[in-house]
Structures are given as C-alpha cells and as structure tokens.
Design goal:
It contains five helices and 45 strands. It is mainly β. The strands form 14 sheets. Strands 1, 4, 9, 10, 14, 15, 17, 20, 21 and 23 form a ten-stranded antiparallel β-sheet that branches. Strands 24, 27, 28, 32, 34 and 35 form a six-stranded mixed β-sheet that branches. The radius of gyration is 28 Å and the shape is globular.
Length: 819
C-alpha cells in the first residue's frame, strides 16, 4: 500500500551540537515508501545527471552514462527517476509531460508515463538552503517511469544495451526548474549469488523544518553475508553545505550530496556492512555538527544484499522453515511455505494454477466445441510431480489448484501428494472464456477485440497479466462501506485488495494459467482475415521468471474436448516451466531446436509426443546427460550408445520406408516456413533405444549429409559444420529466478542464424510489456510463442497493445504508470 508523503513535525528532532549528534526520535516517519524487490542472481547499477541550469527553449538536456553492467547480463528492470521544481498552478504533470528518455517521449495519448511520487515537497533551492520564503507556490516533485523497453538491443547477443550514454530531457523554464535524473538498472548474471534488491521511493525533503532523514529498509528477509550496497537518489545537494549520512548508526559519508553528477543532483552508492542476523537496516542523514543546512529531497533508495538459499530453489531458507508468517514491507503476510511441505534442505517448486472454462457449447471461428474446462486433472499433475520427484536431484512439487479441486475419479491416478489443500490453498480460480470477447466499435482499429471470435484467447503478457493480477474484491476499512472491485482502491490506506494471484506470492509461487489459445495471429497483416485467428501454440513461459500459460484448445482429449490429453497437459507444462528454469529448445543458448540426441521435452521433437521407451510408452523428462553431438554434414549409420529412450529425427520421404504412404512435414520442426530448397521430409523414430540408427530410413548403411533436425540446412550460419550438441537440463536448470520476473520491456534476441526473432517477455508490473524478442527464432512455432506477440487486442477493448512497444501502453486495463 503506497503511503502519502509524510512530514516530520517541527520539534521532533533535538540538535545536540555539543556532541555533534542529531538523534532521530523513534516517531520520525520513514522518508520513502517501499516500491519493489527482486530476488535474482544479479545486481544493480545506477547512473545520473544533474540538469539544473541546463535549460534551453524550455528543456534541460543531458546524458546519463552507464558503464558497470557485465557483458552478456540479462536486464530485468530499468527505472528512470527525476525531479523538478514547479508551481502548483502548473499541476503535477508539468514535470512529466515534456520528458524524453533516449529521444523517446515518456507519454502517450493516455497521458504521461511518469508516476508522480508523493504529493510534492517544498523546494530546496532558496537562500540559506532551507525552504525559506521561496516555498510559496513552488513544489518539488519526484517521478518514476519504467523505461526498459526503450533501451537498445545488441544484435550480436540479443541483450539490452545499458552501458553507454542515454540522453534525457526534462522541462526547464516557464515556471519549471529541472533538477536531475537517474537510471536504475537491475540485471541478472548467473555467475553472481542470489541477491535481494530492494527499492524504496517517494519524496522527502530534509530542510530547516525537518533537519534529519530516516529510512528503515526491509524486504530482503535473510542476508547470506554482511556485505551490502546502498544508493541514495537525492536532489538539491550543494557542495558548500554539509550533512552526515549513516547506515545502521555508523557514519558512511560526510557531505556526500554536492551535485556530483551535475548541479543539484546526486546518486552515490556505498558499500556497507550489515550483520547477517538483521532483517531490516536503517539509513539516516542529519546536519549534526554543521552550522549551515543543506536542503535535500530524496526520490529513491536502492539496497542490495546476498540472501540465503541453501538448496538453490530460489526460496530463502527462512521462507521454507518459518513456523509463523513473515510479513513483507507493506505488512502483507508471505505464504507459510513450511505448512505446505517446504524444506530448506531440498528443492521445492510451488505453482498456483488458474484456468478457463465454458458453461456450455462455444463457437470458435464458426466451429462449435462442447462445454469444457482447462483445469488439468489428477493424471497430469501426478505425472508432473512424479517427474520432479524422480529427477537426478529430486524436486518436491506443490500445486495450489484450490480447495475446490475435485478428488480423483474412479480409476484415475491421484495427485493428492502434490496438492496444497486447506487454509493455505488460494488458487484454482475459474475464468469464463467469454471474458476475453468483446464487440469492436465502428471506428476502432483492427487490433481492438482482435480474437473475439475465439473466446479464451489470451495475449502474452498484457492479457495474461491482467487476469493474473485482476482485483476480485476489495475489503474496506471499518465503517467505510463496501466499494466495487477496482485497482484504484488498492492505493487507498486501509483498503485490502484480493487479487487472483496474491502479490505476496510473487517471489515464491509460479503462476500458471490454463487458457484456450494464445493471442498470436496467423497473419500479422491487419487487413487479412487471419489477423483475427490465433495460431496453434501450446503455451508460453517466462525466460526465466515465474509466469506460464498453457493453451491446448487446438488439441482434443479422448472425449473430444479441446483441452489436450493429460500427457499433453503435463508435457507442455514441464516444457514451459523449463523456460522459467532458463532452458531453451536446444538446451543451451543459441542452439538449434529438434536435435535428435537432446532427449528432453524442451525439444519440439519430444514435447507433445514424449520420450518413448522400447515398448512405445511415452515418458515425461528433461535431459539427464550430454549425449553425443551430431555433425549433419557427415552422419554415420549405426548405433549410438547409452540412449535412455528411443530417438526421433527427420529423413527424406523419397526412398525411405515411408514412401508412398507417409505424410511429409508441412513446416520445419521448429515451426518455421518451408524453403524452396527443402526436400519433403518425414518424422522417423528408432525401433529401440539400442537399435542402430538408419538416418535415411532406407535400409542401407552409409555415411551422408542430412538435415536430421529439419531446420532447412545442414551447416551453421557461417557455412561451417553445425554440431547438434546434447545438453543436461536437470544439471543446468535454474529454479532460483522466480523473484526476478522482468518488468515492462520488449527484447530482441537472435537465433543461431543471426536473425532477430519474436518471443516471450516477462513482467511484474507496469502499463504493458508486449514486444519482440526473448527466446529466438528457434523458439517459435507450436511449442511457444510464434511470430508476433505484439499485443494487439490481447484481452478485448481495454488491451489495445500497440502502445506496449513503447508508443503509449494504452488501454483501460493498465496497472498504473511507471510501475
């Protein structure tokens, strides 16, 4: 719950100049408000620029220079903070409407992206450093905007580019004075330990009336070491007026706010020591020992510390072992994982499931389907739980499908050992597929209500996020009356919002939505009818992160219902969860899809069909070892030793055992279009795991070049031999990225041919995050996202989507500016 800006009452502080100490009394309020925390293997960097006095023609221009993000790191968040002094008569938006970042306006037809933090404070630039008589009608305002999508992308790596210069413009003139701007970037680096990165922001002025600042920082829960870092983003500092900055009562800097990055702007970072046993730290500032008063306005603070996760599942030991609920910085109780079976000495995986259903026969593009529910049954959940249980390093699966989840039917396998029941169960909410349908107005663009002829079609990730975070009810404070559900009430003190997915679960539970279809059009041309028809895609998942969607509406079960078989449900869910573990369709980064010796459901060859044993029974598994690599330019018929399952590959239809009755593949195995140079190919499976491989399926033993993974070539992008390497998923899976969901952004990633591709994105909050990139062209097609998740019409009229690429994030379903 965001709190209003608080002002310390005069007299709350007692200045003891004789001892050089100005103690902060216990009742002094915190300066800022908790904004966000991340738990990921990574760190953060901050850069800034002071802009006071740089105004020309009503705009102050400067550049933020960043240089500390490691090469190849994945950027999870990028927030721009800035401050201006403006007259009340101009309104709070006078400090945010003309703002640009990287020459892109931070506004849309909906209004400015910048979220004003607090109600404004007295300005910090009068004579003497205090508010003085110049306060009058002037106010200092702090703002925040999510700018991840506006960063460049390195075409050689597909990663966001942070290091370098980032131009910023703020209004300056006509009653507005620019102070400065800072960019906060949170990044993921697998070589770093799991860390908590906690952000507080708001607006707090330390002046002649409130001569000290105090901030209690929480939300990291369990430090793993005493080493930590803290950054203060502060406006109006002057070199000739001093102050002290303390951390946990120890002095860390004298006169740190001098306009170091430019006039009136500072964002210093300090290495600090914090005892491992602390679950909160305090930073303070005062004027003790100085005869002049530096007037300072804080806009944000960032704190980082490593955290303790002994088993590497991303769940802090204290979360898994606590016998009583732990609360987050807003006072919300975190899930009591120990009561749900968590163990800090064993990997645990928590999933909350939501699902779509129909109340009767429903028509999809003119085709009627019977009433159905996409809630997975016991057989699917048991299959998934058993697979995690039997992994080389066992993982305990815990699924919250709600207390209304039915008991197993007669003869059906039971998933009860993997289900969360009782008071802890909060999942399993049903969503009627009709919720995604609407009627387009005569003047609406074609991406409004884009898939209304196909109910249950949900876009990734704006539509998904709206359903995940939808406010279902609001509990008012005593005597306030019962308001209707609505996001606005979640900002009001005393009100409690009940969402479909509790925000207190964001760092511990993955959220899985079982929907009917994924909102990717068959045609990207708005003038074509197929622009309103969703592609056949089985699902999508964060890479990495904590969100997954399974969409099997194009696959019938044995009863003819459009929900997929239990094996399809389990295999697709494991496939998408694998993406949240940072596993790709080729295992490692930039590897081709459909490699025969990559025996994993991450591989399109085995996603829906499974990994067959010698008896033909399909198995659900990720790869357990690195099997021999294949050189498609020189394949040799014969046995491949040590295979745990029968393998599959592609062979030319002509001359094979299947000539005359086999059906040639209509697309490449990775889902891409056929090339004019392709010969008709057919899918082949070995007879047994130990059988000699006959790559051409023609009965002759020979050596030959062959496109066995059927991606249209037998060499790499540079013409050199391309080795189809094996991969060990279980050994390389990273379960510890749930608390690092990417915020808004659009990421380009290259496939192994060097082509820019479209793929899945991650988001925690904000006004939209659809766009291009993330998994690579090899990750397109039936198993994941396809070519074109650009958000056009994700969830009806409100989810307009084109702005999700940075041009405005329109739509009444928006979750709030700058978040």
């Amino acid at each position: 719950m965001k709190r209003a800006w608080l002002v310390a009452v005069a007299g709350a502080l007692v200045l003891h100049l004789r001892f050089g100490v100005a103690p902060v009394r216990a009742e002094t309020p915190d300066a800022l408000t908790f904004f966000k925390n991340y738990f990921l293997t990574g760190d953060y960097v901050v850069g800034g620029v002071g802009l006071r006095g740089q105004g020309v023609n009503g705009l102050a221009t400067g550049s933020i220079v960043m240089n500390a993000v490691p090469h190849g790191a994945d950027v999870a968040a990028a927030f721009l903070y800035w401050q201006v002094v403006t007259k009340d008569s101009l309104g709070v938006e006078s400090g945010s409407l003309p703002v640009t970042f990287r020459n892109r306006p931070l506004r849309s037809a909906d209004g400015p992206w910048g979220k004003v933090l607090g109600g404004g404070t007295s300005p910090c630039w009068s004579a003497g450093g205090g508010t003085g008589a110049s306060g009058g009608a002037n106010r200092t305002y702090s703002y925040r905007a999510d700018v991840l999508r506006l960063l460049d992308v390195d075409e050689s790596t597909g990663k966001f580019v942070v290091n370098g210069s980032h131009p910023v413009q703020l209004p300056d003139g006509n009653g507005v004075t620019a102070l400065g701007a800072s960019l906060v970037v949170v990044y993921r680096d697998a070589s770093l330990p799991l860390s908590a990165i906690v952000m507080y922001d708001g607006a707090y002025t330390m002046d002649q009336s409130t001569e000290a600042m105090a901030q209690k920082i929480q939300g990291f829960y369990q430090p793993a070491s005493a080493s930590a870092r803290i950054t203060h983003i502060v406006g109006s500092g002057q070199a000739n007026k001093s102050e002290r900055l303390l951390f946990n009562g120890s002095l860390i800097a004298t006169n740190p706010f001098q306009g170091v990055v430019g006039a009136s702007w500072d964002n210093p970072t300090f290495d600090v020591t914090s005892p491992v046993g602390l679950t909160s730290v305090t930073t303070t500032a005062d004027h003790a020992g100085f005869g002049t008063f530096d007037c300072l306005t804080w806009g944000a603070m960032v704190y980082r510390t490593t955290v303790k996760d002994s088993d590497g599942d991303g769940l802090l030991d204290v979360w898994e072992s606590a016998s009583a609920p732990i609360v987050d910085p807003t006072g919300r109780a975190l899930p009591l994982l120990s009561a749900m079976g968590a163990d800090p000495a064993r990997k645990d995986l928590f999933i909350e499931a939501g699902y779509m259903q129909t109340g009767g026969p429903t028509t999809y593009g003119g085709v009627s389907q019977p009433a159905h529910s996409h809630l997975p049954g016991h057989a699917a959940i048991k299959l998934l739980g058993d697979t995690f249980r039997d992994a080389p390093e066992p993982i305990a699966l815990h699924v919250d499908a709600g207390n209304a989840y039915p008991l197993p039917a007669a003869g059906e396998p039971s998933a009860e050992p993997y289900l969360i029941r009782g008071a802890a169960a909060r999942g399993g909410e049903a969503i009627d597929e009709s919720a995604t349908a609407c009627t387009r107005g005569t003047t609406d663009p074609p991406w409004v209500c884009q898939f209304s002829a196909y109910p249950g079609t949900v876009g990734w990730k704006t539509g998904f996020r709206f359903l995940r975070d939808e406010v279902l009810s609001v509990t008012p404070p005593p005597g306030a009356g019962v308001p209707p559900p609505g996001e606005d009430y979640c900002e009001k003190p005393g009100y409690t919002c009940n969402r479909r997915f509790d925000r207190a679960r964001k760092d511990t539970f993955r959220y899985v939505l079982f929907a009917h279809a994924l909102g990717i059009p068959k045609s990207e041309d708005p003038e074509q009818p197929d622009f309103h028809v969703p592609r056949t895609n089985t699902g999508v998942g964060d890479f990495p992160g904590g969100d997954v969607m399974v969409t099997l509406g194009a696959f019938a079960d044995t009863d003819g219902l459009p929900v997929g078989s239990p094996f399809m449900q389990a295999s697709t869910l494991l496939h998408e969860l694998g993406h949240t573990f940072e596993r790709r369709h080729g295992g490692a980064a930039r590897e081709p899809n459909c490699k025969p010796t990559y025996l994993s459901v991450m591989n399109y060859l085995y996603q829906l069909r499974g990994l067959p044993d010698d008896g033909g029974t399909p198995h659900l598994d990720l790869s357990r070892e690195v099997l021999p690599a294949l050189d498609e330019t020189s394949l040799f018929d014969g046995p491949i030793g040590g295979l745990p399952y029968r393998i599959g590959w592609y062979a030319p239809l002509a001359g094979s055992y299947f000539e005359g009755f086999g059906r040639a593949a209509a697309r490449h195995c990775d889902g891409s279009e056929l090339l004019p140079t392709d010969v008709p190919m057919v899918r082949v499976d070995s007879r047994t795991a130990a059988s000699p491989i006959d790559w051409n399926a023609n009965g002759r033993v020979e050596a030959l070049p062959l496109d066995v993974n059927f991606n249209g070539r037998t060499t790499g992008p540079d013409g050199a031999p391309e080795f189809l390497a094996g991969s060990n998923d279980w050994a390389a899976a990273h379960l510890n990225q749930t608390g690092g969901r990417r915020n808004t952004g659009a990421l380009f990633v290259l496939d192994d041919t060097g082509r820019l591709a479209v793929g899945a994105l991650s988001l925690d909050s904000g006004r939209g995050d659809l766009g291009r990139g993330d998994l690579g062209r090899g990750d397109l097609g039936r198993g994941d996202l396809g070519r074109g998740d650009q958000g056009r019409g994700d969830l009806g009229r409100g989810d307009l989507g084109r702005g999700d690429l940075g041009r405005g994030d329109l739509g009444s379903l928006a979750l709030g500016r700058g978040d």
